[in-house]
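Pinned message: reference record for UPF0173 metal-dependent hydrolase GCM10011398_01240
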Amino acid sequence: MKVSYHGHSVVRIETNNRTILIDPFISGNEACDLDANTVKADVILLTHGHNDHVGDTIEIAKRCNALVVAPNELAVYLGFKGLNTHPMHIGGAHEFEFGKVKFTQAFHGSSYTEEDNSIIYTGMPGGILFTSEGKTVYHVGDTGLFSDLRLIGEMNNIDVAFIPIGDNFTMGPEDALVAADWIKAKTVVPVHYNTFPVIEQDPVAFVGRVKTGEGRVMDIGEVMEL
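Predicted structure (tokens):
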């Protein structure tokens, strides 16, 4: 399995001859190195409905005929847009041909803002545990600190965890350090920082303080092989 980071919360996974995008916020994301018009995806996994996470999902999924896996209300909404979707919900898991997806809790919001500024409620936000080829990736999603992260760490052998550190909308570095300790991933990668001025953080300082597992700042486009 190959895992790469592409700015904000965008993660790409290559496994079982499939390309999987998580939260493909590409257009309008100056940190992202991907091109929404050419990027390939067989599957798109979404943690929640905010525009900086749904991103270019509709355009990419239509062009690539990609399967979109998302929390139920968000999946239903995207289905109305003509996408091929698989709805799931918190605590639920499903074994796909490309790997196993399980949604975990996340304490955040979830809504999609249309071009006319109307706001569509898109259900519960979540984190995603993805398992394939004997490896588990945990995309924690946008969330504040909550104690069940310890339970998630105890119940799963997590190889790499993508943890938000930006603050204001999610955990900041101090809470993310606690989360990293509880999750007990072999590798901890900070995400959801420096995209906007209000979430500016020092990822190098954060990973230097990670005590459980290896803290690692991934450069944009950098590939990690698990």
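Pinned by admin. Summary line: The longest strand covers residues 99-104.
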